[in-house]
Amino acid sequence: MEEKRAKDSVVVMAQQMNPQDANPAGNVHGGVIMKIIDAAAWAVAVRHARANAVTASIDRLDFHYPVFVGDLLTARASLNLVGRTSMEIGVRVESENLLTGEKHHTASAYLTFVALDANGRPMPLPALILETAEECRRNDEAKERREMRLKEKRKEKTTSVSSGNAE
After folding, report:
1. What is the C-alpha separation between 57 and 55, in angstroms, rounded?
2. How far is it, in rounded angstroms, from Cα 114 to Cα 89?
3. What is d(CA 87, CA 56) in angstroms, rounded to the nearest whole number?
4. CA distance linking residue 46 with residue 76, whole number of Å
5. % of the chain surpassing 90 pLDDT
6. Would you say residue 103 has pLDDT above 70?
7. Are 30 and 63 in contact (CB under 8 A)?
8. Using one digit for the tens of pLDDT, what is the confidence trace for 63-94?
9. Which residue among 26, 87, 90, 136 sits deepest, i.e. has the most Cβ atoms within 10 Å of its Cβ?
10. The domain made up of 4-130 is a member of CATH 3.30.300.30
11. Domain boundaries in the chain?
12. How far apart are CA 128 and CA 6, in angstroms?
């Protein structure tokens, strides 16, 4: 399986926010933004795997600034880490008031996707080629998040078993 460069799977999506995306006060619903984040991350995952992919988890999603009706929302998604069958994708969301040109960092998220083969089973992924200092930094940070996720899963499993609440 041939390795792939991180930059070859980057996705940038933009969408203007409309009244149906917002509450009566004109603030765009977080769920609308979450859907755009998930869609951008999915496209990155499929580009890298060249196969179907599904969201396994959202490790972190932080909202930094509100988005309003009329704003242009731009999501930039890129691979941070590729494992054997899963990959972490980071998404940065910005909003722009098209009339004033004012831009804001709106949200950031880290999502884990798993690529699926024709039988719906996790499949091996091409390794990730890191070419820039920024890609290496994001990869190192993703490895730390992965370790924290795995540690938390082990803790949850231990707690669930010891309390008799096997799930």
Report:
1. 6
2. 11
3. 9
4. 15
5. 87
6. yes
7. yes
8. 999 999 999 999 999 999 999 999 999 999 99
9. 87
10. no
11. 4-130
12. 6
- The gap between the terminal CA atoms of the chain, to the nearest Å, is 36
- Give the alpha-carbon dihedral of 125, 5, 48, 67, to 10 degrees: 130
Average pLDDT (104-128) is 98
pLDDT for the residue 163: 66
Compute how many other C-beta atoms are within 10 angstroms of the C-beta atom of residue 59.
17
Residue 92 is encoded by which pair of tokens?
A: 């940065």
Residue 50 has pLDDT above 80, yes or no: yes
2: left (phi over 0), alpha (psi -120 to 50) or beta: beta
Query: What residue type is 129 in one-letter code?
Result: I
* DSSP sequence for 17-72: --GGGB-TTSBBPHHHHHHHHHHHHHHHHHHHHSS-EEEEEEEEEEE-S--BTTPE
pLDDT at 156: 87
What region, left, alpha or beta, does residue 50 occupy, with left being phi > 0 and alpha being psi -120 to 50 degrees? left
pLDDT digits (tens, 9 = 90+) for 118-164: 999 999 999 999 999 999 999 999 999 999 988 998 998 888 776 66
